[in-house]
Every structure is written in C-alpha cells, then in structure tokens.
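Hi U.,

Before I forget, here's the chain from the pilot set. I'm dumping it here mostly so it's searchable later in email.
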Amino acid sequence: MTEPLRTALIVDVLESRETPSASLQFLNQSPFASAAAIDVYLNGVKVLNDMPFRQATAFLTVPDSAPVVIEVASGASADNKSPLVSRTVTLAPGSFAVAALVGSNTDSAGGGKFALAVSTSARGVAADPAAAEFTALQASPDTGAVTVKVRNAGVAFAAVHYQGFAGGYSALRPGKYVVDVTRADGVTRVGSYNLDLTGAAGTARTLVVSGFASPKFPTDPALSVVAVDGKGFGTILTRAAAFAQTSYAVGGDGTATLYGFDNKSGVTVTLPRYGSRTPTAADPRTDLPRTNPVRVAVGDVNNDGVADLVTTLGPDAEGGLPAIDQLSVYDGATGTLLKSLTPFEAGFTGGLFVAVADFNADGYADIVVTPDQGGGPRVQVLSGKTFTPLIPDFFGIADPAFRGGARPALADVNGDGTPDLIVAAGFGGGPRVAVFNGLTLLPGGSPGRLFPDFFAFETSLRNGAYVAGGDLDGDGLADIVAGGGPGGGPRVLVLGAKDLLGATSTLTPLANFFAGDSANRDGVRVAVKDLDGDYRVDLVAGLGPDGTDKAVRTFAGKSLPLGGVATPLGEFDVLAPHGVSVG
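Structure:
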C-alpha cells in the first residue's frame, strides 16, 4: 500500500473561496522513465514536487466555474515554462475530478505522447453509503483497450481505451473479489487480481491498469492494477488465479478442432498418419481409414493474442497404429503448423498428453508434456517461446517404476498468479493426484508440492484419472477437477482448493456427478472453460464411444450437482471411435 502524497503537497487550497468549490485528485500513471518524478502546476502554481510513478494525491480544493490549467513538468522544475503536457478543465460547483498523467514523451513503444486523462464525473465517496464503488482507468501503454470484470459479480467495464476512463461507476458490497482484466474482446486474458473491499462501505476508488504487459527493459514496471481511493491511498493488487479460457479444443481420431464459447467451430487441423496398421490374423489389412486419437490443449503459444492449438497423439486402442513421440503447435487463427518436435525418445510409441499455460509470464504459453502407456510418470516443461526445457524433467508421480504414464493439467491452485501443475497417474495406476507449485517449475527451481498427494476416487481403481483445474466457487483459487479414467464410469469430482491448501488438506467436494451414462466404461476427459459467457467457469467433458451419449458434453459450472447425472448445457458428436480429448 502507498501513502497519499501529503509530504509532496505544496499547496492544498489554490484559492480562498467562499462556497462552493470543486475537488481534483492527481495521479502519476506514466510508466516511462521520463516521468519517474514529476511536478504538477495548477493555474501556474506548483502544487506537487517530485511525484513518483503510481502515486496519488487526496482530493485538492480547486476553483469551480472557472478554467483550471493543469501543467506537468519534469521533477525538480524551477518553473512551468516547459511543461511536458498541459490541459485546461472547468469544474462545476461541488464536483469531483480525477486527472492522471499517462503516455510518454515519445511515440515509440506504443505509448503515445504524454497526455492528461481527466474524468470530470469522479466521486470522492460512494453514492450508496452501503456500497464500495469504483471506476477504471487504462494507463498501460502496450495493452490496448481492456475490459475489466469482477468475477462472479456480473460487474464489467467494456473496452476501456488506452488513456481513457470507464464511463461511470460500479458498486459492490464490501467483501473480497477477484478482478479479471482482458483485452477489449472480453476473452484474451491480461491478468487477474485480488480486490479486498472489506470495510470499504461508502468509499469510491479508481482501478488503474498500469505498467507494461511486456516490459522491454529491466527498469520497466510490470503490469498491475492499482486501486486508488479518495484519500490518495493506493494499493497494488496482488495477482489472483487466472480465469478460464473461453475457447477450447476437441481431439478426435486424426483431427483436432478449436471451438469458441458459443460452441462454434473454428480452426480444424488434420494430423498425418505416421505409419500403417499392424495386420492381425483376424484382419490382415494395413491401410484403414482411421488414425491415432489426438490429445489437445489450448493457449497463446506465439504471443499474438489468439489461443493456439497444441496436439499430441495417443496410441490406437485397437493395437493398430503406434503413437510416435510428436508434439505439434498450430496457429489458432490460420491453422498453420508453427512447430513440431519430439519431446522424448524418438522410439517411444506409447502416446503423449499435453497441457498449456504461461509459467514465466513472458506472454508465450508454455507447454507441459507427459508420456502415456509404457512411459514413466515423467514431466517435461517446455518454454513456449524457445521450446527448450524450463527445468530438467522430473517425475510427477513419486513412483519412477510405474509405466502407465501421467496426465497433466495447469491451473492457478494457490492464487499467486502463476499456474500450478496438476498431475494424475495414468493407465494401470490408482487415481492418485499430485499438485506442484508453479513457481518451483521456473528455471532454477526444484519441483515442490502444494499439499500431499491424494486419491480422487476409490484407491482400489486402476485406471488413473483425467484432471483439470478452475475456480468453480469464485474464491480466487483454481479447484481440482478429476474425471474417471478409461475402464471407469464418466464420473466427475470437483474438490475445493481452499480446503486442500489448508493445514489438514481436506478433500471437500464442490461437485460430484456423472457426465453421461453411469454404465459407460470409457471414463471422461475434462477441461474447464467459460462456455456460456456468464464469466463463471464451466465444464467440457469428453466421453468415450461406449454408450449412447454424445462425444462432447458441456455443463454450466453454476449448476454442477453433488450427485446423480448432470444435465448438459450442450452436446455434440465428433468422429472419435477411440474417445475424444478436450482441452
């Protein structure tokens, strides 16, 4: 938290006036080095000296119904003869205004030139004394227009342009919230932040999107959200668990397709066959019209603001085509192959699983890949920028002799802003789940667990589990989602992250249901997304060919039951005689 700039305030009341008067608050929100310290003049009088970045004043008393000239000069200025920028405003009697320095003294780096963003309809206190109210200012020079949402509260400012304020204020009851900042499309995530409004009834704030999304120099301040109240107190919000993506992917036999939140298909890729079917006595044919099942994940690997499609192959369940050690990345906008590589030994043919998220916050979604049948529970973490390992390979399940592989997922379980790794045992193993702190998977780290391993389902089962993660209950922590493994029913269990992170690591079910016919014995693949546009996490379930259910079923997160069979939000079929992958 930062204190108001009372020590830098030179003049509090510019002009002695009898009633009425107006009020003006000033913020320095230019992240460029040329504005590291600024002086502020009002009507030619210096009122602030050497004001640093991300600092704010309390509301200053200024004249009403007459021009007020705001000038900003470099720090330690002798006078206002060479201001960086100036702007004249006329304020109504009794009104409140907020002025913020944004931009830079150059057109480079996307910053534009210095400007004064001014809102003349600001509030010193909340209009509703029982509520905490806030508006938003977009001051990040390389982020573009942003949409600001409050998770599970239905509050949003859409497409707030750079150097601009949102229109009006939104009100919340005092409490703790998570603010999600996206690009103007409301989909592409910029960041998620914890907003604590406990005891804030009757107050008004400005949430400032501030700093660089992609810093170019070591001294560039990284992007964050600063909450500034009417007294000039500024709080840099801590990062929170990332919200679910709205796009998802479905992998069938030989193909993979990206879908939007409206279930409309986008890019579809067809993977080549890497061999011929092994003939058998019962069926000597070597060329059949099918290929390996495709495993999928979604993330912005090339840092262009569009979610890309990442694929691996699984083995042919009928013993036909082996699955070569192949990882591929396809451009989410065009379907163009961006990268293809072999993460493990070229001779490994047991298939792979994949998950995608940005560990090191460089804008490039990183890739986690694990082996399937015949491989150990080995985990490889690859940089999405260089496709080289971030850390040495390690075992996600503490049994190096196990040869059923592992199944990964990525989600911010502890709410620190870095995705964490969820690993489940693969084929032939129990439904054991391990969760690793994402910060320990960065270069130089040593993989460390967030809490002890646990069994998602009955310990006697030997078909592993499928896993995903997402914030189902809106507490800023990604909850653990487990789906039954192959050979088991399509059971889905959601466990609350808060209790897992507690002192006793308690398994508290938030949902527990069948995603399809309980007699189905192909298990269920799971992914967490926002499917219906209500900004609450939802579930994508991929079912096997056993039974009469559609291959892909989606479920609204707000109505997942604690028993029985859930009613799908939607469902559709894909060509997947060996089951579908969702991600």
